[in-house]
Amino acid sequence: MTALTILLVLVLLLVVFGLLFRLQILTSIFSGTFTRDIGMSNSVNAILMLVFLVVGGAWFAYSFVENFNKMNPPIASVHGHQMERMFWTTMTVIGIAFLITQTLLFVYSYKYQHKEGRRAYFFAHNNKIEVIWTVIPAIVMAALIFAGWKAWTRITGPAPKNSVVVEVMGKQFNWLVRYPGRDMKLGVVNYRLIDAVNEWGFDLSDKSALDDFTTNEIHVPKGVPVLIKIRSRDVLHAVYMPHFRVQMYAVPGMPTRFWFTPTMSTDEMRAKLGNPKFNYELACNQVCGGSHFAMKATLIVDEPDDYQNWYAAQQSFSEKNPEVMAAFKQKAKTLVAPVAAQPEAAETAPAPLAASY
Description:
Shape: elongated
Strand order of the largest sheet: 3-2-1-5-8
Helix content: 40-55%
Number of helices: 11
Distance between the termini: 77 Å
Strand content: 15-25%
Number of strands: 10
Order of helices and strands: HHHHHEEEEEEEEHEEHHHHH
Radius of gyration: 31 Å
Structural class: alpha+beta
Low-confidence stretches: 336-352
């Protein structure tokens, strides 16, 4: 311990002496008693600034063009086109500002490199310039934010009454999916009832929960609004469906939502891409632990008739797990009042595609 203390003291002394030496040099520079030969390195660095601007800009342009399709998968939702327009409008504004400022940065670094006898011009303040570069960005940013706010409030607000409701819950490390049954109402869930079989925590004393069913993959009908209700069972996750331009956080203890309308079925997208194995994907794009990479779910967009047939063939959770139903009454006696789902009229109205079942 003594040796470590001595070592730290020596290091601190070296740092202090170094700072004192640096301070002496700066004092000499300002007093005019110290000169330093710049040499060729300054000119070399100035030229390298221009080289970096040209080569780096060319490489960025090549990389952008080469990977454009990977970064921008085809749009398969109604609101996705508006999101795309807003995104590229924002990128255009930011890109122009970036291009101007970075070009000036590197060109000025070359043009105003150090030369003997040349002094920098001291420009203290200019109210007109301050107003210009404050007001113009403020107006542009306000316009972009207002457009985004309008779109965001629409797609996260009440869904249309004919929406198909799907609830997804993220957990380490997979997605759980459930649908309302023939009554078109999602039943109550209670976290105290969660176990290896009842992963949702279905409260089977609630009649609306008796016909709810779970699936391993998500099915939605083409051309019909789909309301995604989102939960998290443990840590922060995120529902990300790039082809539908959907992204929404799954936050523990705070249900979220997002609605969209698919415009291309899975088969149509496969034909468009020329890839018969293509599937839409729901992925988690928030690093949520060691097996984050495994958090994926397949989403299939069916034609309306195919969706009706798929929906009619599903078995409720209570039907597939009679032992859970049998044991529920005994287990429920030890529980306090369950945590009910928040009622939302726009979500529980019958959906035409499923009403006949």
